[in-house]
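BUG: 3D viewer hangs when loading the predicted structure for this chain

Environment: internal workstation, default settings.
Expected: structure renders.
Actual: progress bar stalls at 90%.

Input used:
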Amino acid sequence: MADILHRIAVKTEDINLVYNALATLEGLRGWWTEDTSGEPGKVEGTIAFRFAAGGFDMRVKQLNTSLVQWEVIAGESQWIGSTINWQLKQAEGYIVVLFEHEGWKEATEFMHHCSTKWAIFLMSLKDLIEKGKGAPNPHDVKIDEIN
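Structure tokens produced before the viewer hung:
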């Protein structure tokens, strides 16, 4: 098994700003993909994320201001069964986001692509909170033919 790990510090003392970016449709549409639907604020709710190249469905497994966890239930075969964890913790003047996309069966070239895209979208999340505007799909940085 292989995991994608990232860490960012968002300049805010309000953990709810970061939590709401992960647990509301408005928040998710503001940094990841504008084509988001479902119930991100409900445990066992389903969230649909769509991109030009396809999409993913996630089931919300945990939902509180210290941990948001999703399980991938539909989409790219390499993602199905994996989990996405957002651990939030306060630091002086910041909220630290520890991101983990765990449970990849193997480290493939697609995993490399996804790791880069997750980093881009985490910076979009940071910009949404700190500057009031993220760069969600389709406005994100494109890195190759997969995007």
